[in-house]
Each structure stands twice: as C-alpha cells, then as structure tokens.
Amino acid sequence: MPDTRSTNMPRGVGVDLVRIERIAGHIRDERFLKRLFTARELEDVGRGPQRAARLAARWAAKEAFAKALGCGFGESLTWGDVEVVRQENGSPILRLSQRALQQHGNLEALVSLSHDGEYAIAVVWLGRPSGGTPE
C-alpha cells in the first residue's frame, strides 16, 4: 500500500454529481442560500439563467471536498468552512476557513467544476502543500 503521507501522493479524492433542478428549486430561499454559500460565492455566480447551474457546481465541489477529507459535514466541517471562488483567470479554487484549517491541517486542494444539461459535477483532489513534510 502506498504511503499517502508523501507530498506527491493524494490525501484524498472526492467527486459529486448533483441535479441542477435540486438547487434551482431553492434559488429564491435566501435562508437556504446563506446557509450553504458564502456572500462571495453568491456574488460570483451572479444572476441569470446559469445561476442555478453555477450554484449546483459549487454545491458539488463542497460535497466532493468533504468526501475527499472523509469526514462529511458536521462538527468538524460546515458548509461555510469551504468556499469556491474564481481566480482572476476564471478557474475555481477552494478556500478554507481558519476553523477548517485548524481542524484538518494545511492542504493543497485542486477542484474542477462542470455543468451540462440537467447535471453539475465537481472533482476535488487533496494533497499536501508543495514542500510540506509528511505528518
């Protein structure tokens, strides 16, 4: 069995697929949106016909991250602890809250988002930061 503590081995990989309609059904529920998404995420997705698809992709990314960690959402990880934001070039990145960093340590997280038709999908790869030492 490979040593996953090595800096070149993944710590975990997660994937999640969600029906866009599932999120679209809650798009007018401000309480729902504020519980699951940060203000920056809601600003990033904007308005218009692609809003539900973009939110669904972010939902999937948060779920995929929790799966990659192997912990799910609960006491050690909340929806607000994981933020999916766009870099200047438009590609997504994951930002973790200070609380999440304290709970789970410093991680390198790569994320890929996609949506087409009825579905949105996200894949998250977790590793140790470059130059980090194994725990």
Could you explain the architecture of this structure?
This protein has 135 residues and is α+β, with helices and mostly antiparallel strands. The chain has a single domain (12-127), classed as Ribosomal Protein L22, Chain A. It is built from five helices and five strands, in the order βααααββαββ. The chain has helices at 20-24, 30-36, 39-45, 51-69, 98-104; strands at residues 12-19, 82-86, 92-96, 108-116, 119-127. The strands form two sheets. The chain has a three-stranded antiparallel beta sheet with strand order 1-5-4. A two-stranded antiparallel ribbon has the order 2-3. The longest helix has 19 residues, at 51-69. It starts with 11 loop residues before the first strand and ends in an 8-residue tail after the last strand. The mean pLDDT is 85.
